[in-house]
Every structure is written in structure tokens, then in C-alpha cells.
């Protein structure tokens, strides 16, 4: 038997049914016995919606009013009546089982399943299997219009059924016409058999995805605006009624490994994907979710994996996955199992744990855990932010795709972070950072983040001539970016006092900058990570004495750049040329923070002490005058490519290690002067520089 079903919502009608997230307001149905070709009683039931505001199209097409709907029963009661009346009609016809038959898929997939899911009540099993009359009609009559262009009216016209829509109530005409179409398909000329119903998955199935799989781009969408705590089951519930492929929900992570509110979802076919796109800006709780097309390559990039360990871990199907974050690096499997306790047993014991590690085997503090049922997973989530060792542990719902993504991210992390293209190192001229208590420095606070050395010099005006060579120091934040602070070493305490008085709260670009007089000792404390405010001086986290770059008294000879390097690193490739201050009567003849020698590349940016925990970054450079590059190009040298093994990396240093300890550690392993010839081909002039004492080698 078939139960022919028709419905309408308070919003859009026809091809857009369910796309506006409006509630069901009408159900009409009738039982059809396919063997005896008899029918049961036709039933029409109004449904009371939570929002009785009907769209203009709904009012026009259906003729229903809010007043009439206000007297109706809610959806759960109507569905109970539906089951009871269908069972009663089947008994009259001598039948016991039935399958639904609807005009297309929208009523079942886009209206009934999403609405009942949001209202938290279950549909009976009969709503998980149905026949699409349009598809059955096209199968029976291949010369008819395409399935997507079919309607009840076009099917009736194709068969020449003389029915007048205006003679019947809305919904009644549709059901009667559908029954007439079915009887025509059952006639001797067609003898159509209903054999392959459409199915709706009861539950989303988790599973792994391999990068070697082929994913059709016509089956993938991107959902954006998800709550950060949403899981794959939450996303599957948002798309309730549509069939998601096994392991087809991939939550996207940001660069810090945290969810970014997006997910890629893979459906079983393009038809399901097209229906999913109609849920654009539908709501998950109080948030609306944007739905866009995506590609199979994007899905594989997020969800695909190649690790056998992960594949084995995820081979246990229908498991609930929980992600643990913040584990102590020394935590063992026994520690994690003990933390979870007997109330939430892990599937397979130790085999249900997967620790995330770096390529060199170091733990990341993340782990994934499998649970066999929702109850155990809920018990585990109750331990969110409980203590293991000396750390609190975060627990979240996770997905198979997230396991792959996290493992892919960490396993692809290089042991040594990728550095930008190196700039040719040069030997800086002699200079020192003051460390005394004389207040011959000034601190600039509130600089624009885009401000550079030239902006500071322009801000200083005539006082630029009183800055010591290499006396401008930018303070960087933890990401190595300008923090808005800078320190300037002046030639005397009087000069520093005058600058602080003259430039305090002077505008730089669109911000005013505070200028305070301070000492070299205070400057170094801040550069090392301490704080300087009205309450006094707070020492930096590292309690070592400030390690200033050493004085280069032995290096009086300029460094020469090989010709090949000069050709590769043109002045424009290093850093933009500095702006030349406008000449004035009071201005000095030259910018005095540059060294006197001009035929070199010089540092204009000394950032030896960014804020902890970032290591000191490499210094920047400015381009030499064109004449210097031209002079260097006249010599011929071989390319300056360091040989393999020229650098070593030290890992696991104590946090209080200083330069002296590192030099002592390598005592006896320094290069002999002649050893530099095999590393870099240099001119005699540069070699004389490199053969000086070696303290400068540690950067």
C-alpha cells in the first residue's frame, strides 16, 4: 500500500518549499491499495504553527488564515493522529504495511525532518522511506519532462487527466490528482512497479577518509558561521533529512588548531547537495548558517589522511570521539585512562587512545579518545577543565575528519620552522647599548604599528642629530611585530630631557606619542621583557643581566659583498630606501644614526630583545648607496651557498641559559680561521674581518 501525502508550510510553495524555514501548516493524505486499486478515506488536517504569520503566497494559494490555524492541533498531535488513521484505513483494506508517496522530496526532507528535529521529537519509521512520485512518473514515462521540471499539474496534463483545481480545497485536489496519476501508472499499458523507495538515514555514520579517494565536487558544501563547540552530530542534525556520506563532516581548524566556525560536508549525491544549498541562512540555535558550494579537493585537504595509525584508530565504526587538549607532555596512556575513570570506559582500553605527536616524536599535549556510546562520552565531557598533574584538561566533541586534520597539521610541521629568504649578513660597525643609570635615553610609547625608523627620525625633528649611532631600538611583541614602543639612546642626559619635553604627546600620523626620559638600565629591562610604569620598574621574567651585543672593536674593516650576491640582492630587494629628511638651516649635514662609512650595507633596526617568549629576531638591513654595490660587482666570486651542516640547532636549553654558557658549551669546537674558506668564498678584505676573535659568531 501507498499513503499519498501532501503538505504546505506558512511560507514558500512549490520548488521553494522549506527553503525559508517556515513551519508546516497543512497535511493531506489518502491510503492506496496497489493490488486491489482501492483507496481509503481522504484526510485533511490543519497544523498549528508556533508562528502564525502567513506569507502572502501562502494566503493566496492555500486560502488559509491565522484564525483558522489557531484552532488546530500542534504538529506532534497531528502526526499521532496520522499514524492512527492510517492504521485504521489499512485494516479496512486488509493491509498491514505501507510506504509514503509524495510529490517530490521537499515535504519529507526539507520540511518534516528539519522541523521535528528542531522541536525535539522523533518521526516514526515510515518517514524514513518514501517514493518520489516525480521520479516514478519519469521512469514510467521516459518521454515526459525532466524530474526537476515536473509538478502535479504537468503530470496530469501529460496523461490528459481532466481535473479542475478550482473545484476542490487546497491539498485535496493535489492528493486526488496524485492518486489518479498512480492508477494510470498501474494500468495495463504501463504496469509500473514501485520497487526502489527513497531513504533517509536515521543517523550520521562516522568514518575515516583517505587522500587517495575521489570526491565529486558536486557533492560538497561549505557551512560557515557554526558555533565553535558544534560537533559533527550537530552539523548532521542541521542537515537532518539529507543523506551525508559516511565520514562526510569535516570541521575546519584555524592556524592555532582551534575550530574556526566552518565545516565541509560531503553528501551521497549531487541531488542531496542541491537540497543542502537551499538551507542557506537556516538557523542552528540562535545563529544562522551560511551554506556555499565547495570542491572535492577542499574536502580531501581537510578530511583526507595517509597515516596508518590514524586509519587503524578510526577503523572502529560508530564510536564517539572526544578530543583532549592541554595534556602534560609526560602523560602516559595509564594517566589518561586513570583521569577518565571507570565511569567512562575507553573503547579497547589503550587502543582507544591516540596521542598527537610532532614528527620527531615529541608530544603536543593533544589526544583523541574513543567511546562506544553517548553516555560514556557525556561522562567524559563532565571532566572538562579538571586537573591532571598540574594542568587542567579541556575536552571537546570531535570528528574523524578533525583527527585527520590535526594529525596532518602536526605531522607536516617542520622540525625547524621555515625562515624567510635570507638577506646577506654583514658585520655591523662598533656600537654598544648603554646599561648604566644615567638617564640619557628616551622611551616612545603609543607609536603607530606601521611606524618605522624613518618615521621616528622625522618625529624627532632636529633632535635626530643627537641620537647615538644605532641608537634606535624597536620593541617587538610575542609575534615579532612592532608593539608600539621604542627606545632611543641620546648623546647625553640633557639631550634626552630636551627631547622628552619637546616631543611628548606630539602627533605621529594619526596618533599622539608619549615620550619619557629613562636610563639605559631601564631601557634594557623593558627590552628583555620587564615593565616600566608609574609604579616603578618590574624585572623581566628572565633574571639574567642584560646581554648586550658585544662591541666590535676589532672589526674596523668593512665587509664586502660578493658580486653574485650583489646581483641577486639588488638594493630594492632588501628594504625600501630611507626617506631623506628635508634640508633646513638647523639640520645636521648627515643623518647621524648611520655609521660614517657609506660603502657598506648597514643595520637600521636593532631588535635584539623582543618580548619573551620569542627569541631575538634577525636584524634588518637597509640598502647601501648604489656606488657601493657597483664597486662590489667589479670583483668575481663564486656563489655564497653554505655547505650542508654549516648550522646547528640547539634544543632543550635551560630557560636561564646565557651567551656565555653557550660559548662555554662549544669550547674547543670553534672554526679555525682557514675553515671559513670552505664555507664562503670571500675577498681578502672580508677574510681579514672573519679571522678576528669569534665571539660575534653566536647570533
Number of strands: 26
Number of domains: 5
Q: Helix content range of the residues, please?
A: 25-40%
Instruction: Enumerate how many helices there are, as a single number.
Output: 23
Largest beta-sheet details: 7 strands, mixed
Mean pLDDT reading = 78
Which outline best applies? elongated
- CATH top level of the largest domain is Alpha Beta
The low-pLDDT segments are 415-431, 542-626, 628-641, 671-683, 685-699
Rg from C-alpha positions? 37 Å
Itemize the secondary structure elements and their pairings:
Elements: E1 2-9, E2 24-33, E3 38-39, E4 43-46, H1 56-62, H2 66-70, H3 75-93, E5 99-102, H4 106-118, E6 129-132, H5 133-140, H6 152-159, H7 172-185, E7 198-199, E8 220-224, H8 232-238, E9 244-253, E10 259-267, H9 270-277, E11 282-284, E12 287-293, H10 296-303, H11 308-313, E13 320-325, H12 333-340, E14 353-357, E15 363-371, H13 374-381, E16 386-388, E17 391-397, H14 400-411, E18 441-445, H15 453-460, E19 467-476, E20 482-490, H16 493-503, E21 506-508, E22 511-518, H17 520-527, E23 531-533, E24 536-538, H18 563-568, H19 571-574, E25 602-605, E26 620-622, H20 626-633, H21 659-665, H22 676-679, H23 684-690
Parallel strand pairs: 1-5, 5-6
Antiparallel strand pairs: 1-2, 2-3, 2-4, 6-7, 8-10, 8-12, 9-10, 11-12, 13-15, 13-17, 14-15, 16-17, 18-20, 18-22, 19-20, 21-22, 23-24, 25-26
Helix pairs in contact: 6-7
